[in-house]
Amino acid sequence: MQELTRSAAFSRFALFFLIVFVSLLPGFDGRSAAADAVETIRIGGTGSALATMRLLGEAFHDRHSGIVVKVFPSLGSSGGIKAVLEGDIDIAVASKKLSPAEKERGLVAYEYGRTPLVFVTHKTNPLSDITLKQVIDIYSGRMMNWTDGTPVRLVTRPAREASTLLLEGISAQMKKAVLSAAVRPGMTVAVTDQENADLLERLPGSFGVVSLCQLISENRGLKSLSLDGITPGKKTLADGAYRYYYDLYLVTGRRSSTASRLFVDFVFSKAGRSVLTRTGHLTAGRHR
User: Fold this and answer.
1) What is the homologous superfamily of the domain 115-245 according to CATH?
2) Left (φ > 0), alpha (ψ -120 to 50) or beta: where does 165 sit?
3) pTM of the model
């Protein structure tokens, strides 16, 4: 009887020792089993939309606690689309349409909204409105100082980037001015949307463009300018008074996961549209 008792005690001691030993192993986390049950949706793409995606991800997680949304740093539209094709992310957010070749490879794009292109300047600039002629003069190098004498510090974007293409599409004169700025020595060029906003915030006398959704969702300390007396916003975009904007798309792959489809559905739901509306989007009906 004593042998049985000693044996049972030894077994309990051995089990306790095993539990303690395993718990001390590198990388062991008592929450790992619960964490393994959580599914992750990986999102990346155009930098101007990333903060909005994070807000949507938080609202989505409130309704689907078993799914988390991870938003990667800026990949650009093309980089995000490529990442979906290669299986590195689940959803790309893009400010351009898919090419025929990308569609042939099974990608599907859903336009979820539009957001105005906004001309912005440093918060200390007394200017509140700018004319299209002045914008052209700034890019062409004819307007070098603001009315208070502060030098204009133009921040440009790379060729083929969405903002650059939008500017070039305004008019033939605007395109000529943008191309002129691209080859002018000493210009400040921002590669990503976040770098662009950082430079515009930091440089006194700065001038450039950002999307309204980035301006709002990242709570940027920039002064937005009306253009020829028209304020860029959802209302002026909806009634056609303001004509310069980004189209925004969610892009999924051929074998989209159930979680990814749930997220896309959420973006077009009432709750998702509420997030988009308060972050400067004119929402779109769901279509490919």
Assistant:
1) Periplasmic binding protein-like II (3.40.190.10)
2) alpha
3) 0.85
